[in-house]
Amino acid sequence: MQKNPNKGQHPLAQLLSYLKPYRKKVRLATLFSVLNKLFDLAPPILIGVAVDIVVEGQESLLGRYGISDPADQLLFLAGVTAVIWIFESIFEYMFKIYWRDLAQFTQDSLRTDTYSHLQEQEMAYFEDRSSGDLIAILNDDVNQLERFLDHGANDLIQVFITVVVIGSIFVFSAPQIGWMALVPMPFIIWGSVWFQEKLAPKYSKVRDQAGEVSSQLVNNLGGMTTIKSFGAQDHENKRIANLSDQYKKANQDVIRLSSAFVPLIRMLIMAGFIAILIFAGFQTLDGEMQVGLYSVLIFVTQRLLWPLTRLGETFDLYQRAMASTRRIMGLLNTEEKLPDGTVPIKPQQVEGEYKFENVNFRYRSGGPVLKNMNLTIGAGDTVGIVGATGAGKSSMVKLLMRFYDVTGGQILLDGRDIREYKINDLVKSAGLVSQDVFLFHGSVIENIRYGSFDASKEDVIRAAEMAEAHDFIMELDEEYDTIVGERGQKLSGGQRQRISIARAILKNPPILILDEATSAVDNETEAAIQRSLFKISKDRTTIIIAHRLSTVRHADHIFVLEDGELAESGTHNELISKDGIYHQLWKVQSGEITV
């Protein structure tokens, strides 16, 4: 993956730096654009030569070079014309192929590199960023660069070549009047720069508004059940309409300014064209200029006109691309990563003993979540962690998986601070079953295999049987090949949970962490999950975060949290006998008392 070391540079410089691996393609694409334009500018000269032949006959330019017969001159000119048009077509084909290939390579590389870089950021980064805005960068902004490389880069090169070639024709063929065509050029360049400066912040606003629209759409599509259950369709329609209107107005602001570019450029070119038309015409009438040369000057002035009028559209593409480049490079320059450890560890080497030593933790915003936490989870033990909502249970899971780092103290795994281990090795050593089960759009077998992609179907079935998922899977229309839908929406909560457990079993980690795995299932499903846990917890450290105390009743040890602190610990029977927090929770859940 490429990194972008040129932070703070102009976005074009950053983009060119990113294109370094494709230097050869860029050079060839540029060469083919230049050659195509050179051959494209030849027809006005050929027309001038044709007029010269008809008017001057044997005294024409070709006649002076040895082709005396005007008919032979025309046949020769026809042959040259055919060759020029053939080469123009060949180079047009080549530059289109190379620029479009370059656009595809670039957008593919940018999207994959940016996504890969995004995955390396710590979890806190995603809490502060809208997923819709990130999607807009990965999709819309990358596609904007693709469109610029498809067309805009070639247009800029060819406009530059047009100005240089036609300017040279005027200077060398008619220096006495050629300056008239070149006088508007400084004003055109100044106007282009001025428009760029004005358009740049406006296009940045457009891209930001596009990100907000995308963000809200992603949120709404993910929360469609909530929207419908509260009858909030009209409210969300208005919200989307408002954001879309803001995006529309931001674009209209850009359109009004960018649309003025072409008419202004046209007026400047018109002044140069009229000057050539009149003064060169007078010289031709006075016999000071040949008719053929006059024809060439008139035609090349026109050829200068149309590319420059298209410059507005090209600059429009350019500014959109630069706004997108700023957003993409801004993401690539983001460095919010947890420092990786240096100690490698294989899952089979893990014994699974955890120690919390004076652990403190808080998120970026808000107060402390865990306070002076001290506890030991024995290797191979099954432990339960319980407590009221907000007690810090799920935060402990995030620390164990090293999604976050402690803000004080340390967590030891087998006697070593987990921050010393390589993060990927640490993750491979633990299997997490979250309360928020996420299934990918795909088949049942693909979801169980997720993370263990090379597992055989026999291993998948064995894991499903241990998770007590095999029976219901076999009742599905396509059994293990059944498509579960986005986020597994075609399955019940209990079915999704058991597939998630099967996925963790297939991974076969020495440490298994279940975060509220029974919080959203019925009693029958909970009983099935408990039977699964009894099977899979053997010979591995199993940490069960639970709201339902029945889930951890048979654990080797239970830790009770209250307000981020360890309040009680012991076995189920020991905690019941203490008549403390756990006992009160047990009486509430067992129906002995009501609250």
Task: Give a short summary of the structure.
This protein is of the alpha/beta class and 595 residues long. The protein has helices at residues 11-18, 23-40, 42-56, 61-64, 70-119, 123-127, 131-173, 175-182, 184-222, 224-229, 233-258, 261-285, 291-309, 311-332, 393-400, 423-428, 444-448, 457-466, 470-474, 493-507, 523-536, 572-578, 581-589, and strands at 354-362, 368-377, 382-387, 408-413, 416-417, 430-433, 511-515, 541-546, 557-562, 565-570.
Protein described:
Keywords: ATP-binding, Coiled coil, Membrane, Nucleotide-binding, Transmembrane, Transmembrane helix. GO terms for molecular function: ATP binding. This is ABC transporter ATP-binding protein/permease. Residues 28-320 form the ABC transmembrane type-1 domain. It is a multi-pass membrane protein. It is a single chain. By secondary structure, the protein is α/β, with parallel strands linked by helices. The chain folds into 3 domains: 14-332, ABC transporter transmembrane region fold, CATH 1.20.1560.10; 345-429 and 515-520 and 534-595, Rossmann fold, CATH 3.40.50.300; 437-508, P-loop containing nucleotide triphosphate hydrolases (Rossmann fold, 3-Layer(aba) Sandwich), CATH 3.40.50. It has helices spanning 11-18, 23-40, 42-56, 61-64, 70-119, 123-127, 131-173, 175-182, 184-222, 224-229, 233-258, 261-285, 291-309, 311-332, 393-400, 423-428, 444-448, 457-466, 470-474, 493-507, 523-536, 572-578, 581-589, and strands at residues 354-362, 368-377, 382-387, 408-413, 416-417, 430-433, 511-515, 541-546, 557-562, 565-570. The strands form 2 sheets. Strands 6-7-8-3-9-10 form a 6-stranded mixed beta sheet, with helices on both faces. Strand 4 (408-413) and strand 5 form a beta hairpin. Helix 9 (184-222) runs antiparallel to helix 11 and helix 22 (572-578) packs across helix 23 (581-589). The longest helix is centred in the N-terminal third of the chain and has 50 residues, at 70-119. The chain is elongated and about 120 Å long. The two termini are 56 Å apart.
